TrEMBL record:
Residues 11-28 have a biased composition (Low complexity). Pfam families: DUF6593 (PF20236). Residues 73-83 have a biased composition (Polar residues). This is DUF6593 domain-containing protein. Residues 1-44, 62-83 are annotated as: Disordered. Residues 112-254 form the DUF6593 domain. Residues 1-10 have a biased composition (Basic and acidic residues).
Amino acid sequence: MSFPNPEHHQYYSPQYPQFPQEQIQFPQHSPPFPEHSAPQFPQDSAPQFPQHIVPQFPQPTAPHYEQHAMPHQQAQYPDNASHYAPQNTSWYPVYNGANPFVKLSFSNRTMVNTSITVNGTPLYKISTVDTVGAITNIKDARTCALISTINRRTLHPDSVAFAQRYGGRVLKVKEWLVKSVEGTKWSIQTGGTTLTFLWDISNRLLVYQDSNTEPVAWFDPATPSQSFSFHIKNGMENIWDLAMTAVIYIVHKRLLTDKFFVVNDASGSHQAQWALFQLMAN
């Protein structure tokens, strides 16, 4: 029995019928949406803002400072005096550019023989030349005019005298610089104003005027990298001699009783040193 040769005859299987090609047409897949049916937004529909609408702030201008005359002469203060505002200290109040401070720097870490400068310009000269080391003169470094004299005595009360104040009379320090009952602050009354000096826990001597709740000046103790400095609010030059004399007297007493004060010690022993100072300070 022979079978047809599939190479020469069309072969039809009874089990699998052959259908002519292209007899069944399947629909072509069409996109779910008509072409270009996606919503079209107009070009450049994003809101347009005017160019260069940047708020313009006025340029800062340096404040103008008037010259003030000290009681003993017509003082000429350096025009380039450096002004500082307190920084990086929690107790410092926040001052703006309208309330600058002048920084007075001590050349030596002592209250008896040193120069005080403003931006490198000598302003005061402190000298103690007697053999006992009890009499300290504060002079104007530019004119050598005497401003005040402090006399520390052993058997008698300490005294102070100003060349151009109080008629040049010699005053007892305890009557001029009145110490509070608790012994933690001192006050001076002059010309209808009161200056109050007190120490804070950071070894800074703060100066307040009248009933102000913010200091108008403060004294920074020395650190391993710099000497003493005194910062005072600009515009108060007429009381610089009073404030500086009081600061020199109070700080010198502190230095005699607290040797750690010179490096601004803030260790745990500070409370004991502070208690000793309160007992011994004059």
